[in-house]
Design a protein that fits this description.
There is one protein chain. The chain contains 4 helices and 8 strands, in the order E-H-E-E-E-H-E-H-E-E-E-H. It is of the alpha/beta class. A 4-stranded mixed β-sheet has the order 1-4-3-2, with helices on one face. A 4-stranded mixed β-sheet has the order 5-8-7-6, with helices on one face. Strand 7 and strand 8 form a beta hairpin. Helix 1 runs antiparallel to helix 3. It is globular.
Length: 163
């Protein structure tokens, strides 16, 4: 018998699984917002999504319809999510804009960050926050620390100016 790989093709050892209020709408949204492609999908007898897979870049994200009988709740049901997903992409600005055009709300605009990323954050219509980034500088830890200290000092000065 052939040896079975314990990690399925297209997956990593740690993967995301989202519970949303409307999985069919979420799949369509992620296709429009993040250029996702559809993978496997299992449907419940009532037509809701039991399990689905989408691929964003080189990563598989699993999702399903939130269902109290299974003990799964959506971010909207909980009033927010303690989890954020982070996407690195060559076309981060385009991905950010397509997400907003598809219906996401801007949490933080695309900005060149002190740690060497260009990054922004959106919240999708299902209550999930997504960081969208592109590495623009390779920095050593000392340079990141120096820039972080400058950033913290500028934030404190800004707060003092507002007081």
């Amino acid at each position: 018998m052939a040896e079975v790989n314990p990690v399925p093709k297209g997956f990593n050892t740690v993967n995301s699984y989202l519970f949303v209020d409307d999985a069919k709408a979420a799949i369509e949204f992620y296709k429009a917002a993040f250029f996702a492609t559809e993978g496997d999908c299992m449907v419940n007898p009532d037509g809701s999504i039991m399990h689905a897979e989408i691929v964003i870049g080189n990563s598989t994200v699993m999702l399903s319809q939130a269902n109290p009988q299974w003990g799964t709740k959506s971010a909207k049901t909980l009033g927010g999510s303690p989890v954020s997903l982070h996407v690195y992409a060559d076309n981060a600005d385009e991905l950010f804009e397509s997400s907003v055009a598809a219906g996401s709300t801007v949490v933080a605009p695309m900005t060149d960050m002190f740690w060497g990323d260009r990054m922004g954050k959106v919240e999708d219509p299902f209550g999930i926050q997504w960081g969208i980034a592109k590495k623009i500088e390779d920095l050593n830890p000392e340079e990141v620390d120096r820039r972080a200290a400058e950033w913290v000092a500028s934030m404190q000065a800004s707060q003092n100016d507002q007081a």
